[in-house]
Design a protein that fits this description.
mainly alpha, 5 helices, 0% strand, disordered C terminus
């Protein structure tokens, strides 16, 4: 059941990724981050660590992955892609406040 849940989350996130208008490169970075999520949807590795695994010829920097992470964190379920519980709760709060990930008054 745990493997199925993890697989279902990854599939669900990849489906959402398929509906974005990201470049192929940016979509590939988000997909890589999706593969790095743990069973709870948290990012298991630091962005710096992930960059260190990449071929230097790709000329990727942490900022490239920060942008990809921001996109991933905009996906449903709220809190996905967080790096720790505090960030997860913050992301969930952002979505709960306005429903679109922006802080603001209740509608």
């Amino acid at each position: 059941p745990e493997a199925a849940r993890e697989s279902n989350l990854r599939e669900y996130l990849l489906e959402q990724l398929g509906t974005t208008r990201l470049s192929r490169r940016d979509a590939a970075l988000v997909a890589l981050l999706i593969e790095e999520l743990d069973d709870n949807g948290l990012l298991a590795s630091s962005l710096e660590e992930i960059v260190s695994w990449m071929d230097p010829a790709l000329d990727l920097e942490v900022d490239d992955f920060r942008a990809a992470l921001k996109m991933l964190q905009s996906f449903d379920p709220a809190g996905v892609g967080a790096r720790d519980l505090a960030e997860c709760l913050d992301l969930q709060l952002q979505f709960a406040v306005t429903g679109n990930g922006q802080y603001g008054p209740f509608a």
